[in-house]
Each structure stands twice: as C-alpha cells, then as structure tokens.
Amino acid sequence: MSRPQYPSARRDDIVDDLHGTPVPDPYRWLEDSDAPEVKEWLDAQETLFRSAELEGRDHFRDRVAELLRSGSVGTPSWRGGRRFFTRRFPEQEHPVLYVADEAGERVLLDPTVLDPSGLTTLDSFQPSKEGDRLAYQISVGGDEESRLYVVDVATGERVEGPIDRCRYSPVAWIPGGEAYYYVRRLAPSEVPAGEEQYHRRIYLHRVGTSPDDDVMIFGEGLEKTNYYGVSVSLDGRRLSISASRGTAPRNDLWVADLAASSPEAPELVAVQQDVDAQTGLHFGRDGRLYVFTDLGAPRGRVCVTSPDTPGPEHWRDLVPEDPEAVLSDFAILDDMPEPVLLVGWTRHAIGEISLHALESGERIGDVPLPGLGSVGGILERPEGGHEAWFSYTDDITPTAIFRYDALTGETTLWEAPPGSVEVPEATTEQVVYRSKDGTEVRMLVTSRPGSGPRPTILYGYGGFGVPMNPGFSATTLAWVEAGGVYAVAQLRGGGEEGEQWHRDGMLGKKQNVFDDLHAAAEHLIATGVTSQDRLAISGGSNGGLLVGAALTQRPDLYAAVVCSAPLLDMIRYERFGLGATWNVEFGSADVPEEFAWLWSYSPYHHVREGVSYPATLFAVFGSDTRVHPLHAWKMAAALQHAQAGERPILLRNETEVGHGARAVSRSVELVADQLAFLARHTGLKLS
What we know:
By secondary structure, the protein is α+β, with helices and mostly antiparallel strands. It has a domain at 20-65 and 422-573 and 608-682: 3-Layer(aba) Sandwich (Rossmann fold), CATH 3.40.50.1820. It contains eleven helices and 39 strands. It starts with 14 loop residues before the first strand and ends in a 5-residue tail after the last helix.
C-alpha cells in the first residue's frame, strides 16, 4: 500500500485567542463552500476517492440492494374510519402514503410521482381528526426545509400550500378540519443575519387563507433556538404547548381550555416552567389528564390528574418508574369491561410491552411479542377501542406491524413488508463490559457461526438520549454475511438506560462517551472477537464526532474509520447549520468552562503531525442543513497533512442529499462505498 497523493491544501496562519487559549484554524478557508478554490479542492478530493481501490463495491452494492428489497410498512394512524399508513414496495425509492377505508386502499401521496428525480421526500403527515383532510410536509434534495400542504382525502386534490419555513413543524388540527395550529420560522427579513434557521413561532392557520394572515399564538420574545410542540385534544377542548431550548432534555409546558378562551387567544396555564425534566400530556377520553414525565424519575413514569389541575403537585403515579427499564410510550384501550393501559419499555435496549389496569395502574400482564427486538409506535384508535398496533423489528427481521387485541390477549401479524428477502444465518448477543471508570456498558454483537479474530465494525452514537436498539439493518447483515462481525455499543449519552445515562455523556461528561467506545474496542480484542488490525469504527452525525474523537485519542486502537456527516470543529460548530441548538448538549465555546470541555476533545484541533492515523473515509452531503460538510472538509485536510503512515484519508462528497431521508438507491451506493472501504482496510476477503 503506497501513500496517496493528496490534493494541495494551503495552511493559513489563523489563530484565535479564546479565554486566553490560542486556537489555530489553518483550514478556515474551507468553510466557504462557494469559493472557487474550495470547489477545486473538493473536485480533486472526489477524483482521489473514485480512484481508490475498493474492489468490494459491486458485491456490497448488490447485496445491500437485495436486502433492502424487503420494502417497508408503517404503523397505521386511524382517523374517522380511515387508516393512513406508508408502504414501500421493493422497486420503489421512497415510502408511499396510503389511505384505506370501506372502499379499499388507495395511494394518497407518492413522492416519486411528485418528483420523478427521486429528490423529494415526505417528511411528515397529519390527518385531521375526522380524517377528511391531511396536512403533509415535503422537502427537496435533502435540505429538510419542509413545505406544508393540505389535501382533500376523498379526492386527493390539493386544498392549499405550500407554506414554507415549516421545518420540524407539528400540525394540530382543530375539530372540523377548517383550522390547525402549526410552527413556522419568522421570515429571513425579520431576523438578524445568520439566524434564519431559528426564531420559530406557533400560529393558528385557517384552511384556504393566506399564511400571512395567520395569528401568532406563542413564541414571541422567547429563546431563539426554541423548538415548539403543539397538540389539541380529540374533543377540541384542550390545547397543549411545549417549548424546549434547542435539543435540551427538558421542556416548559402550558395548557389552555379552548371552551373558556378562543383558539386565536388561548389563555395558557403553566404546567411546568424552568423545571429540569421532560414532560408530555395526553387528554384521555375518560376525562383524565395522563402525564408522561421523567420528573423525579430518569427512566420515566406515567401519572394522572385532572385537566383542571395539571401541575406536578397534583400528579398521582399510575405507572411508577422501573429501576431497570426505560418507559417509551403508552396506549389506552377502553372499549371493554375493564379498560387497560399498554406501556412500552426498553429493558437494556430490548423492547417489551406491559399491561396495566387503567384505573389503578396495577400491572396485570404482558403483551406477547415476536422476539427479542425493538417495539415502536404503540397506537390505538383515537375514538377508543380494544386494539392497538405497533411495529417490531430485530437484527434479522425487517420491520413489521403487529396487532394486539385486548379482548383475546393475542398478538398477531397485521402487515409484513411487501418484499421478501433471504436473510443470512446470524445471531446477536448482548455483552456487558466495563468502561474506564468501571461503569458497566452493554454492546450488541452480531456474527455468523465461527471464531475470531475477524474483521469487525464497531458502531456507536452516544448522544442526545438516542438509544441504539436492535433492528433490521442491511448494512449489518451484508457485512456479517461476508464474514465480518458487527458490534453496536450502547454508550453513555444515549437513552438505553434512561435520562441519567444520557446526562452522564453530555456537556462536561462527554469524555465518558469516548472512553466507553475505547473500552468496547478493547473488550472485542481481549475476547478474541477481533484484533487491532481488523477493527474499524463507524458513526454519523453525533456519531461522527464520536469516531472523530476516537481516532485522534487512540489512533493505535483502530485500523479504519468511517465518519459520516460529522461534527468535528467543536470550537466553531455553533456558527453553522443547526449548531446553536446543540449547545445544550455539548456546551458553548463562548463560555470559559464550556470552552474547556470542547477544547479537550475537539477532533479537528487534536490532529497531530507525525502520527500514523487509521484509514479514514469521510462521507458528507452537499445539502446537509444540520451539520455543514465543512467539518469533514477541514478535518480531512488536517489529517491528510498530518498522516505519517500510508493508510489513506479519503473524502466522499455527495450532492443533492442531506442529513436525513434519501432515495433507496442513493443509500445503497453510500453503504456499498463505506463497506468496501472498511473491508479493504480490515482484511475482509470477499469470496
């Protein structure tokens, strides 16, 4: 293996003084994506990447595409006798939105019909309470800049739209389908330069009117990075509003009685403000207010109270905190002599559903599940009933929808994915290891029969309270089938063990996450699963930060790295994309103490000349409006300059896709390139 000839990248003598610390930034010029010299450098990087010897591309492209031919199906949402759900057939690039009623099923919205190029994605949808109208949001080219439309469900005809600036907007219909609450950013002309991604407000919109005439309901004068939630009870009487500063694991919460105040000027009553907890509300058909909260319960609990006394001092525990399982969601089944509550949990990342008496909360049983996997989206009919639907998946089972009947106590398959695939023989074991500080951490290890050491991919995320639960993965199965091992570490910073687990890996405790990953790698080596020269790490977004920090802290421990859509310059991250909404997770370089946290691990600033770094592939996306590709550009330039060994540092730039959903064919190409790169640099031999 010979050292690649890297594109020339000048190093500027830029050094900032932050809180008395000199902070060099030699590649700041790469932050200007419109500059001709940056475009020239990116073109050269693409040429270098495409010339790389990745002989496994075709094999992984074909196998991943075949595994994805299972298609997909979504959990149904019921409204007024109609059922709304998504389904993707094997040959389709995107899931299609269907509606089903007494006349049968029909397509309501097909993104590929809207845009044959495949660049348009369906971001979200929300039927009206009667099911006769549907609001949906679409974006183009991966930018996630959702535009909101409304269609008539019976005819499929567009009623109104687009309303722009609706990224991440909930839609809360008022009964009758003539009005809804939603969230929209202020116009760019109304906010300071550079803050166009922020400044959200809640509005009341009446269908058929201009959004310019919408009534602002909430958000004026509050934190610019706030995200808002809004919902309206089934009977239309109760309005709830939540506000979170960026991605903070806490929210403020208000309710209003719309029978006592108008929808245009609801009289809001605070449920919780300036409280370090996350809380959600559900107005039950029985007149009770159900509270889902981690206040005083990091793993979550369900409480009840009256809608007229919504404050925490009135809450009564219905389902208390479990010392080992994390509460994920619940559903109420009340069309039966003894109404019940279904409660979803993850116990060390494995899903389960318990059954409780609705009035007392007493646990009276469990819902049968297909296996040891992940359960999601427990939904009942809004008008009541004795049935619930949920999704299920595990490492060898594509996501399917199951139905639980509380009258019979039976769980049955409701709908399987429309395609069929041959899944390789593989097993997943959950192992426990100790991190640097002695904390027990779990890891899911998937492999075929055999013994090590084998080429192994160690994947992690470790942030924002996001759990790494088991699930069907074409990436995992293609790698394992080819003879490798795929391990997913359930690091601190995630949500596998509740909110405290998350907080033990955020802000000033972020190093715990990196230590957990290093310990996972050492465990895999010590137990003979793999060896250092056969071990790769992979992560994206916050997981890209994870592997970026790992390769700079322990370059000796890893043979190869795939780093996708990463955060890497942690001193300037707040200036780009949605970075300012994440300082509640990472901290801010403007605050001396928090700067010290960031400076201690910021990957871009910890690249050192003369070090032999792992083979590294950066994958970034041109329309990514969450994490700007400049992070990977600067880091790639720094590593290419510093690399003392011969292992390559490559950069894969992809246009017209972003941080989130994309066409299936684009996903296949990305995974094929990544797996082929890791196969070459971990010694995985393809037959």
